[in-house]
Amino acid sequence: MRIKVAPELCNVAAAADEIMSEAKGKAPLSVILTVSRLRQKTGSMRSDADLEALVAKMAAARGVALVMDRKADQFAPG
Length: 78
Description:
There is one protein chain. The N and C termini lie far apart (about 45 Å). This protein has a two-stranded parallel sheet. Helices cover about 50% and strands about 5% of the residues. It has helices at about 10-25, 30-40, 50-60, and strands spanning about 30, 65. Helix 1 crosses helix 2 and helix 1 packs across helix 3. By secondary structure, it is mainly alpha-helical. The protein has a single domain, classed as Orthogonal Bundle (Arc Repressor Mutant, subunit A), CATH 1.10.10.
């Protein structure tokens, strides 16, 4: 019997760590693309701003260069 886990229960931090590991030593990592990849991998319902903050903290701790490429109003409520 297989247990099905809802995508939002996936470990977002582990997925971000995997993305950071792939990017280390390469060109700077786009925040917009990283947030998008996290959503694809995990199905997370966290806000874009929350995911961006997670990515920024993890990148700083791992020495991964980031491009802060979102527009100021990109994540603003519509």
